[in-house]
Amino acid sequence: MRGFFITGTDTEIGKTSITAGLTHLLSEADLRVAPVKSLAAGQELIDGQWVNEDVQRLHASQRLGMRPDQVGPLQFRAACAPHIAAALEGQRIERALLLAAVRASVALGDLALVEGVGGFRVPLSEGFDTADLAQDLGLPVVLVVGLRLGCINHALLTAEAVRARGLALVGWVANTVDAAMPHVADNLAALDAALAAPCWGHVPRLSDPSAAAVAAHLNLARVQEALVAAAPAP
Fold first, then answer.
1. Which positions are catalytic residues (predicted)?
2. Total structural domains in the chain?
């Protein structure tokens, strides 16, 4: 499997926006990108169908003709922690089944962008969390840092957890959550120095956060460098 696992410093910090932006960026570079929202909790009934907003955004960003259920292979109705959402529907998130579903979806492309859920360590079932999922997939990790007060601590703790699992942190993206956050440049400098991984971009607060608009703030050269570095030896 070739690609990246997209995680974040918290929930609601823009993982889906960045994943969609990366999908657009790499698709424009003529790569066949399969974006996958590994788990999605929170659906709305629209025109008689239950849909998840994050899955819809990723689906709109891809060019492989993937179905929504392939972009989001495991979806639940309630907008809450995945293991709770599953229990509300009388289900349990099974590790082997989830892995098989994600692998089947990413096999539709040549490059996988697998988005986690919430932060890096979100419980999925007993003895299984999103960090385990990232380990099972074995993909290098990209960290989305939601720029707001406290983001440096959250980012460093997440980076430490990623590396403790034996995974490579190959890049990070700063995504503006709090447009009024003071001392942004100083925070970015501190993150750049401490994370020991290249910054792939700084996304401002966008009035239209389309995949193309987000992609305009991402550094294709740095993403491609990470792809080359992660490629298996011939």
1. 37
2. 1
